[in-house]
Amino acid sequence: MPQVSRRFLNPKTQERIFTLFISSIILSNSKEKAVSLVEDLLTPTEKIMLAKRFSIAYMLIQGYQYSTITQTLKVSKSTVGHVGLWLKHRGNGIRQIITSIKRNESLKNLLAELGDSVVEIVATAPGQDWKQAKRLVLSNKKSREKPF
């Protein structure tokens, strides 16, 4: 379990190391660099804890019920409640990130739906296997409906 030292830092030192930490996050502008940074800084337990907390916030903002979140992420209702309370009173930064993610997902879904339409059009041409095309379109739709 992570602990913070009981010895307090000078406020200027604390601000400076926090700025350095944030700068390191900003500089990890690729997936590979971000993964490497997280692997270097966090223990496996901390990674899971932060990922679940982020996922709870994501699912709450998406409108999922507490019971669905607890079953999907294997967390307690009190954990979901804590994140929900945190989102209610603050959480502007995570809301902005989740809004960006949702915007990107909407664009991907739109492109995927256009691709499905093309598959359906091509499948209606003479000599094409329309059953296989329908299965592919249905499979794609089901995968887009899952929360994760």
Explain this structure.
This protein has a domain at 91-148. Helices cover 78% and strands 0% of the residues. The protein has helices at residues 11-27, 31-41, 44-62, 66-73, 77-89, 92-123, 130-145.
> What is the CA-atom radius of gyration, in angstroms?
21 Å
Distance between the termini: 27 Å
Tally of DSSP β-strands: 0
Query: Helix and strand string, N-terminal first?
Result: HHHHHHH
Outline the biggest β-sheet. none
How is this fold's topology laid out?
Layout lengths: L10 H17 L3 H11 L2 H19 L3 H8 L3 H13 L2 H32 L6 H16 L3
Helix pairs in contact: 3-5, 6-7
In short:
This protein is an all-alpha fold. The protein has helices spanning 11-27, 31-41, 44-62, 66-73, 77-89, 92-123, 130-145.
